[in-house]
Amino acid sequence: MPDASVASLFRSMAQGVHQYLAESLRICSVYLGIAVIVTVSMGFALPGLRDQALQVHKALLTALAPSSMQAGTDFDTGSDLGADMSSAIAMAIPEAPASNATGMLGPARVAPPPRKPVAALATGPQAEALRNYISRKYKVAYDATGPLLNTVYKVSRDKQLDPLLVLAVIAIESRYNPLAESHVGAQGLMQVMTSVHQDKFDAVGKTALDPATNIGVGTTILRDCINRRGSVEGGLACYVGSTGPDDNGYGAKVQAERRRLALASGIALARD
């Protein structure tokens, strides 16, 4: 009898171990199946998302190419947007006016004083750091950041705006998506209200989704807002559509991103 009891005990233990192993194997199979399904699903989904992102950034790069800059607009520079970024950012410093010496052309005229620079001269490494920061944080194709920054600096020079301020507005408004559209009708990089400013786009024969045109019109609106309100803070509140000083934190968000851009690139902030 004792031998039979021991044998029965061993059989019970063996059955318990077998059931435990079978249950463990079943659970592992379920989790493995879920992992396979997730992996296959991501394999189908991620290429689509990646292709969509690449299409957006390709559109940005193509639209900012020299051929898309319409001659005659107030932000057309006629120069190569693919040039070295250090030289592009250096363009934020206005050139000194040429002198007119007395001679056959008549008496010399006093040239107007150069406009006050709106940004410090950036070195090559600083320009590169700025490109890398925007590319990494906002998932913008690196090749698109060069033409984008080049355009922003040139337009900012013409409008007497700090380029880092303009870049910060773009970051908050659209996260650098040139095809962004809001439910209230704001479009493009700087989320310009097309219904209000359609005449500005008609004047240059472009749409709000054209990146260079959007930057040109957006900076024109921002410059006008700053002039009317008398300060950058007031101008930002005006730009976001606030009729008073309370802009629901919009200006603080823009200024915070402006400081992050300066910190990441080592470019000095311009005085407002």
From TrEMBL:
Signal peptide: none
Domain Transglycosylase SLT: 156-244
Residue stretches spanning the membrane: 30-49
SUPFAM superfamilies: Lysozyme-like
Keyword Transmembrane: yes
Listed InterPro entries: Lysozyme-like_dom_sf (IPR023346), Transglycosylase_SLT_dom_1 (IPR008258)
One GO MF term attached to the UniProt entry: lyase activity
Entries under CDD domains matching the protein: LT-like
Protein EC: 4.2.2.-
Protein keywords: Lyase, Membrane, Transmembrane, Transmembrane helix
Superkingdom as given in the UniProt entry: Bacteria
Pfam family, one: SLT
Name listed for the protein in its UniProt record: Lytic transglycosylase domain-containing protein
Gene source species: Achromobacter veterisilvae
Lineage: Bacteria, Pseudomonadati, Pseudomonadota, Betaproteobacteria, Burkholderiales
